[in-house]
Amino acid sequence: MRSNQATDGTATPKSATNATPGTATNASPGTVASAPPGTPANAASSIANTASGTAAAQASLIGAAPAGSEEIELRALAKRAELEACVALQRATWGATYDDCVPASILKVSQIVGGVSAGAFVGERLVGFVYGLTGVREGRLVHWSHMLAVLPEYRNHGVGRRLKEYQRALLQDLGVERMEWTFDPLVARNAHLNLNRLGARVESYVPEMYGDTGSALHAFGTDRFIVSWPVSDGARPRGLAQLPETWRLAPSAEDPSFAGSGVLRIEIPRDVESMDVSDARAWRARTREAFARTLGDGYRVAAFVPGTASCAYILERREGEGEA
């Protein structure tokens, strides 16, 4: 999925240009990180601070219940006006200079061969959409969820999650076994939704997945996690209570002394999209190296811990990957 899939709400880096209102799957939390990239803090105190605000941070990332009683209907994009409204929503979300909009014709014909082009509607007004393609990998049906966006006034009300669940229900009827998409590891709201709410699993980290798209939302790069989500109802998030007790003392992956540790952490800012682009790019460079090294050394992303100042991914060594 383009950008950061499955989330509601967005903000643009302070120095980015050509940004227009909308919500990409690049959604952002509401609080600017308290410190730019630099030397990692003491492991125990840093993760303890993250943990202390977890409940409040989770509530903040989820958002409040919608005001009012507008009925939101989820359905396939069928009419020409609905397909064109989806293209317009893409432009409003990723900007007028965005190069990779999916045209109305492809939104329509992909549905004939198992693709999903679905919208969230209030009356006849399109307020959000999800789009993906179905294909075959190693003889099995797999769905690539490529785009999801929600209008600003409907963010933080669970519309993105409902669209994902609607998408999954359609794919169950087709016999699809797994759905995959991407999200930006630096965007905390996306991490919370994809990992903590939906229970998706991180499969890999890809630097500059999409390259230069022309969108100001991608001004600090398009590094992405590829995640997978079973189309059956078996996906369950792994809560913090299920992590090893040692997570509270997990060393930073940026600390050379982490080698051999069973559990470690990689911190990200709470609101990268509110930062100056130069600071956001510094975070990108710093975390890119950490993710590439740890995932390559046999670690996996076990959980995401929201925080009031910063957030953290908890990584644990895969079974059988310990040192001899």
Tag the structure with descriptive keywords:
globular; seven-stranded mixed β-sheet; three-stranded antiparallel β-sheet
Gist of the model:
By secondary structure, the chain is an alpha+beta fold.
Would you write up a description of this structure?
The protein has seven helices and ten strands. The N and C termini lie far apart (38 Å). A hairpin with a 2-residue loop joins strand 2 (116-122) and strand 3. It is globular, with a radius of gyration of 19 Å. It has helices spanning 43-52, 54-62, 80-94, 104-109, 159-174, 188-197, 277-296; strands at residues 73-76, 116-122, 125-137, 140-150, 178-183, 201-206, 224-230, 263-269, 299-305, 310-317. The protein is an alpha+beta fold and 324 residues long. A seven-stranded mixed sheet has the order 1-2-3-4-5-7-6. It has a three-stranded antiparallel sheet with strand order 8-10-9.
